[in-house]
Specification:
175 residues
């Protein structure tokens, strides 16, 4: 059996360490190779992505560059339009207020005029009633008295006949 002395053990340990280092180097080289392949693959994918995305980004930039002045002009036009609409709304409001005030004044005038007309009609009606009705009452009273006089002159029996009529009608009333 071989002799296990210190230098032999040290030599065996150094050989094992060297072997572990060689294995580690091989593993690291394999990892390095895999990482290089992975980096190359990622680089190709990024390049493909860049080649497809960059035209879209460029088109978007061009579109924004072309549209930006139009958007600004449209915004300023909208601001001017809004301001003009506010002014016109204020004008319409003041005109409507003026029209309403005029209508109120005219309505007041018409009310006053109609009240005056109706008052005049009422006064005329009262005047006509007094003017026509009073003489008519007087004429009616005169005609009634004339009729009574004529009837009293026409009757030959006069008062006795009236008393007889009264007496006969009074008898009917008693039970």
């Amino acid at each position: 059996m071989p002799k296990l002395d210190t230098p032999t053990i040290q030599l065996a340990l150094v050989a094992m360490v060297a072997l572990a280092m060689v294995i580690q180097a091989i593993v690291l080289l394999a990892a390095l190779s895999a990482l290089r392949k992975l980096a190359k693959s990622i680089s190709e994918e990024i390049e493909d992505l860049r080649s497809t995305v960059m035209p879209v980004i460029e088109n978007t930039r061009d579109l924004i560059a072309r549209i930006a002045p139009k958007i600004e002009a449209t915004t300023s036009d909208l601001a001017v339009l809004t301001r003009a609409l506010r002014d016109q709304t204020a004008d319409v409001q003041s005109a409507a207020d003026e029209i309403v005030a005029r209508v109120r004044r005219q309505a007041s005038r018409i009310d006053t005029m109609l009240s005056s007309v109706l008052d005049a009609v009422d006064r005329a009606n009262a005047f006509m009633a007094d003017t026509v009705a009073k003489p008519m009452r007087q004429l009616s009273a005169f005609l009634a008295s004339a009729k009574a006089v004529v009837e009293s002159l026409r009757s030959t029996e006069g008062a006795s006949r009236a008393d007889a009529n009264r007496a006969s009608s009074d008898n009917d009333l008693f039970v």
